[in-house]
Write a structure and sequence with these properties.
11-stranded mixed β-sheet, alpha/beta, 264 residues
Length: 264
Amino acid sequence: MTEPGRGSAEDEGPSTVLGAGRVRYRRILLKLSGEALLGERQYGVDPAFCAFIAQQVADVRAMGVEVGIVVGGGNIFRGLAAAARGMDRATGDYIGMLATVMNGLALQDAIERVGIPVRVMSAIAMNEIAEPYIRRRAVRHLEKGRVAIFVAGTGNPYFTTDTAAALRAVEIGAEVLLKATKVDGVYDADPMKVPTATRYDHLGYLDILRDQLKVLDAAAVSLCQENNLPIVVFDLNKPENITRVARGEPVGTLIAGETGGVTG
């Protein structure tokens, strides 16, 4: 019997990667921050960096891996920051959700330019520019070889796009959540400010929650823990990192199990 929402192994096609054995993760959820789309800019979206991301997505799709993406909106608007300056938190969060839609459309354009079909699915109805998020339809898009970009977070204020990424990953049956960052994993201090900071190779979910490591919010980590969904935190700026994770190579920091603490 196959898992609900999935076809048989024969339906999913070959699992051989480009000259490197078999794929470990057949369906992934990639979480991109809005800041990742800045590239060399101070605000907005850098088309060159979107093209860089699109090529990585195309490479991993060529391996037969199904790809879902959740994108943030911090390059355009951050609801939490606006709330700190006096704006109503719910209003700020809704504006931030709209920012993620703009980013999703920019990514859609970039990925389609490298020949990969894409569907943008929104948690807030806006039928003229995006499909409504429906779980079964999202899974079908993935099975058909399309990249699914999930925007507008969960559609609710007070939830981050990290939580949206964990939720969508669980809903679509992703085998791993890839958290793209500007550094090569989780550290015990900010490596940008503390040169002696130590990187972790492996952490447990409880390590993240107990030590309050600022890599994902607690709701996202708890949801992954409850569903035994591994998280890989990795450097987006290095080409081929997404394909390396899909192959099961040690990249960045793996968050899984009850405890880790092995440092690199």
